[in-house]
């Protein structure tokens, strides 16, 4: 209830008025059944604008720290992410990635939309980086179609480290659903998982027009 109140009454109308989302391909998102939204990741605001423009509820996962902050800032963060339909995941342990996938798989089994960033972290420089195979495992386990979603300019609206976003029209481009049912009997095959992930990343590259780098963004950040 809080999700729809926030989206349709409290926050959503204001965001749409201020940022005037321009969306191409919204008709590609199935109106019923489980769907995986595979998005490139440019900005903190990606998790705000993606659910905003969808007709159905979208569930992302986020680090548990967003839900455990102290004071007014912590309360606002907790209420915002809860209202946005985000589910907290403890990322301190070695099983964090699997916990996130299990959570999203549960969302899909309930016939809903799960959002995921195949790159695993925000792009450090606006380019598109190598995808991690979690999105492929999610597709194979659930049988859900994967819809590529390209955020085109959220890094200009809210660059990393910026608290207050710039007022600029947000642009999003959505591709046609990708069906990987032909690989249904090859779950657990890491070569198949890599092939699926690379196909998804190719679609995101084509949709976004961003340069592709065949390196994990997290590796680049660690090196920096």
TrEMBL record:
Organism field: Actinoplanes subglobosus
Alphabetically ordered keywords of this record: Acyltransferase, Transferase
Molecular function GO terms recorded: acyltransferase activity
Highest taxon listed in the record's lineage: Bacteria
Database matches in InterPro entries: Plipid/glycerol_acylTrfase
Protein's name according to its UniProt entry: Lysophospholipid acyltransferase family protein
SUPFAM superfamilies: Glycerol-3-phosphate (1)-acyltransferase
Pfam families: Acyltransferase
All copies of domain Phospholipid/glycerol acyltransferase, residue ranges: 35-154
Coiled-coil ranges per UniProt: none
């Amino acid at each position: 209830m809080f999700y729809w109140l926030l989206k349709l009454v409290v926050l959503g109308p204001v965001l749409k008025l201020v940022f005037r989302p321009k969306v191409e391909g919204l008709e590609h998102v199935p109106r019923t059944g489980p769907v995986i939204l595979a998005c490139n990741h440019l900005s903190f605001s990606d998790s705000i604008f993606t659910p905003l423009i969808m007709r159905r509820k979208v569930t992302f996962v986020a680090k548990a720290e967003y839900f455990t902050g102290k004071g007014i800032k912590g309360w606002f963060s907790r209420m915002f992410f809860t209202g946005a339909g985000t589910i907290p995941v403890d990322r301190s342990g070695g099983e964090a990635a699997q916990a996130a996938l299990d959570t999203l798989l549960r969302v899909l089994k309930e016939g809903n939309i799960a959002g995921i960033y195949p790159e695993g972290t925000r792009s450090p420089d606006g380019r598109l980086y190598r995808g991690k195979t979690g999105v492929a495992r999610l597709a194979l386990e659930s049988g859900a179609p994967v819809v590529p979603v390209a955020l085109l300019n959220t890094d200009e609206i809210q660059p990393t480290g910026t608290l207050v976003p710039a007022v600029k029209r947000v642009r999003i481009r959505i591709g046609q659903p990708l069906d990987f049912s032909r690989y249904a009997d090859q779950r657990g095959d890491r070569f198949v998982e890599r092939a699926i992930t690379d196909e998804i990343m190719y679609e995101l590259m084509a949709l976004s027009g961003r340069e592709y780098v065949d390196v994990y963004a997290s590796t680049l950040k660690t090196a920096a």
